[in-house]
Design brief:
Layout lengths: L1 H44 L6 H28 L10 H31 L4 H4 L2 H20 L18 H4 L2 H61 L2 H57 L7 H25 L1 H22 L1
Length: about 350
């Protein structure tokens, strides 16, 4: 009797933990679906958001949108399943997680490489990053991920051991397949992103210092120009005064344009640095847990595992807030779309 009571308490504890994880994933799914749909709507509406960089962002939004619309709801349905034999096999959840999660990681890598080329080689960017390169890279990455994700469903890469209630990778997949999978969808992108992140962060600090120096130089030159203009006006003719004013105005506009361009580059670098930094923080915990368990080490506590699962899925939802917070054009278009939707809802209700 005491043994049955202990088993019931354990089952209730695991079910309660699964319900909490399911609620968190539902919240993440709602924000990820709405946010990434907003990104795609903004790129569709605003012609200024159709550059090559924005196309990579759109592809990232598609991957995150599929994660929110398909992978997360199926994971939630499995968590809330009360029957001994789940109606949705764990292999299906793992397949979708590999496909859309890997696509999200690969596309963040593409976004970071695109920004790296734009910052490192701005004058040759347009000749390197073309529509042909974009289409080829997207097709190859998606086809590779589809093949990799389907392999466990057709009999290669699956594990014969018992599966977990949260459909973890380590109990569901074989050790060899998991190693190949992690190298391809986590290892290579993460290492490359960290290297690019360090360079972009360095460029952001460099641009910030350049902005401060140019603003100081602009204020100093303006004050000197004002003093010189007063002296010129005392001893020059009307024609010479007008020529001096024209030169001074043209020099001021040139300095202001340089400062504005440097400011835009600095903001773009800081946005990508924050994007990649958040990506590393959200993705790294579950990778470390799986790698530790892969080498037959003790399993992590369920609460830690659930938190890591929430974090890696939350990566699909946070990108939108980074874009909205750092990119003025995105923020303005988001506001336009939301206001239009609000007017549509209020008009239809009234």
């Amino acid at each position: 009797m005491m043994l049955n009571k202990t088993e019931n308490d354990t089952d209730d504890k695991y079910y309660t933990s699964s319900v909490i994880l399911a609620v968190c994933l539902i919240v993440v799914s709602v924000f990820a679906f709405g946010g990434n749909l907003l990104v795609l709507a903004a790129i569709t509406i605003n012609r200024n958001l159709r550059s090559m960089s924005d196309l990579f962002v759109a592809n990232l939004a598609v991957a995150d949108l599929c994660q929110a619309a398909l992978a997360i709801p199926l994971r939630v349905a499995t968590l809330l399943e009360t029957r001994p034999e789940p109606s949705i096999p764990c292999q299906v959840n793992v397949c979708l997680a590999i496909l859309f999660g890997g696509a999200s990681n690969i596309n963040i890598l593409f976004v970071s490489v695109d920004r790296f080329i734009a910052i490192k080689w701005p004058f040759t960017y347009n000749s390197w990053v073309t529509m042909k390169l974009f289409v080829c890279s997207i097709l190859i990455s998606w086809l590779s991920l589809v093949v990799l994700a389907i392999l466990p469903l057709v009999g290669w890469g699956g594990s014969e051991g018992p599966t977990s209630t949260t459909c973890r990778f380590t109990p569901t997949l074989s050790r060899e397949y998991l190693a190949i999978c992690y190298i391809f969808i986590h290892g290579v992108p993460l290492v490359t992103i960290i290297i690019l992140y360090l360079y972009i962060l360095k460029a952001a600090f460099k641009h910030s210092r350049a902005i401060a120096a140019q603003e100081f130089s602009l204020r100093t030159n303006n004050s000197l120009s004002n003093e010189n203009s007063i002296t010129h006006e005392e001893f020059s003719t009307n024609g010479e005064q007008q020529t001096t004013k024209k030169h001074r105005t043209r020099d001021n506009l040139t300095r202001q344009n340089r400062t504005a361009n440097t400011s835009r580059r600095g903001k773009g670098a800081r946005m990508i640095a924050v994007l990649l930094g958040v990506f590393i923080i959200l993705v790294l915990p579950i990778i470390l847990i799986d790698l530790v368990e892969l080498w037959k080490a003790p399993f992590a506590p369920p609460a830690v595992v659930n938190l890591a699962i929430c974090l890696i899925y939350a990566n699909s939802a946070v990108n939108i807030f980074i874009y909205a917070g750092w990119n003025t054009e995105y923020r303005r278009t988001f506001r336009l779309v939301l206001v239009s939707l609000w007017k549509l809802v209020t008009c239809s209700s009234s």
